[in-house]
């Protein structure tokens, strides 16, 4: 969500994020994601939470073939791209300033015969949600989108709007601060939340959230 450039000398430990690209191998495809920290800040780099979520999806814990998915705060688009390569029909979303950058990454990494499986769309959490089908997705994906307390209310409204009783929300994140735990507590008021994976090397948690009856066919 945040499109704030950061000064490089303020975060020397994150120097790899200032590389102009990042390369991965997922879903039998070699992916090269453009990064642009100086222009778009945290929205334009690949974070560990996205990598861990892609690894989780690739393990096949969730059947993606033919499913409709939406990625929130997509940034570079890595998670949505991998979900599409694994068979989902994906809408990757972010705020307007990131869309051109996001679109180019999708174009560059999705084979021509699969381009129709991915749509890039503007979505600012909590705003103009009626542009999207209420409860219209099988799967909602979010990697490292729980970090700004002022966005929590809008994010929760967005998750509630996009989810039906059979939608599975997959959130991949680090629990950095007490406020992150507070978001999970707020989420549990509407959703049944369960931790399904923890990557101890990267300190990344993956949670599923479902409102209503638990889905068994994903």
Automatic annotation (TrEMBL):
<feature type="transmembrane region" description="Helical">
    <location>
        <begin position="40"/>
        <end position="57"/>
    </location>
</feature>
<feature type="transmembrane region" description="Helical">
    <location>
        <begin position="69"/>
        <end position="88"/>
    </location>
</feature>
<keyword id="KW-0949">S-adenosyl-L-methionine</keyword>
<keyword id="KW-1133">Transmembrane helix</keyword>
<keyword id="KW-0812">Transmembrane</keyword>
<keyword id="KW-0472">Membrane</keyword>
<keyword id="KW-0489">Methyltransferase</keyword>
<dbReference type="GO" id="GO:0005829">
    <property type="term" value="C:cytosol"/>
</dbReference>
<dbReference type="GO" id="GO:0032259">
    <property type="term" value="P:methylation"/>
</dbReference>
<dbReference type="GO" id="GO:0008168">
    <property type="term" value="F:methyltransferase activity"/>
</dbReference>
<keyword id="KW-0808">Transferase</keyword>
<dbReference type="GO" id="GO:0032991">
    <property type="term" value="C:protein-containing complex"/>
</dbReference>
<protein>
    <recommendedName>
        <fullName>Protein N-lysine methyltransferase METTL21A</fullName>
    </recommendedName>
</protein>
<keyword id="KW-0963">Cytoplasm</keyword>
<dbReference type="Pfam" id="PF10294">
    <property type="entry name" value="Methyltransf_16"/>
</dbReference>
<dbReference type="InterPro" id="IPR029063">
    <property type="entry name" value="SAM-dependent_MTases_sf"/>
</dbReference>
<comment type="similarity">
    <text>Belongs to the methyltransferase superfamily. METTL21 family.</text>
</comment>
<dbReference type="InterPro" id="IPR019410">
    <property type="entry name" value="Methyltransf_16"/>
</dbReference>
